[in-house]
């Protein structure tokens, strides 16, 4: 369920703005999206796992805040990130 170091490096490599960039909103949104998708699959099989569902909702809220922040800074960056991830704008 957690990200392996290889998966994390690949996601960071795809979404980084410059070399060594691990904290930009784009990278954070991509990492959260991957974790959200994995946790969603887990909850499809374990529907009574309330603690994981709470964590999922907090991750979704954090991703939404990051998207809103990035939208205030630069709308073009938001649209490119959301297209790469596969989310609606």
Keywords:
mainly alpha, Helix Hairpins, globular
* Class from secondary-structure proportions: mainly alpha
Low-pLDDT residue spans: none
Helix content: over 70%
Shape: globular
CATH architecture: Orthogonal Bundle
CATH homologous superfamily grouping: S15/NS1, RNA-binding
Q: What separation lies between the terminal Cα atoms?
A: 27 Å
CATH class: Mainly Alpha
Domains, number: 1
The number of distinct helices, counting runs of at least 4 residues, comes to: 4
Layout of SSEs?
Blueprint: H1 5-15, H2 25-45, H3 50-73, H4 75-85
Helix pairs in contact: 1-2, 2-3, 2-4, 3-4
Report on the structure:
The protein is mainly alpha-helical and 89 residues long. The chain has a single domain, classed as S15/NS1, RNA-binding (Helix Hairpins), CATH 1.10.287.10. Helices cover 75% and strands 0% of the residues. The chain has four helices and no strands. α2 (25-45) runs parallel beside α4 (75-85) and α3 packs antiparallel against α4.
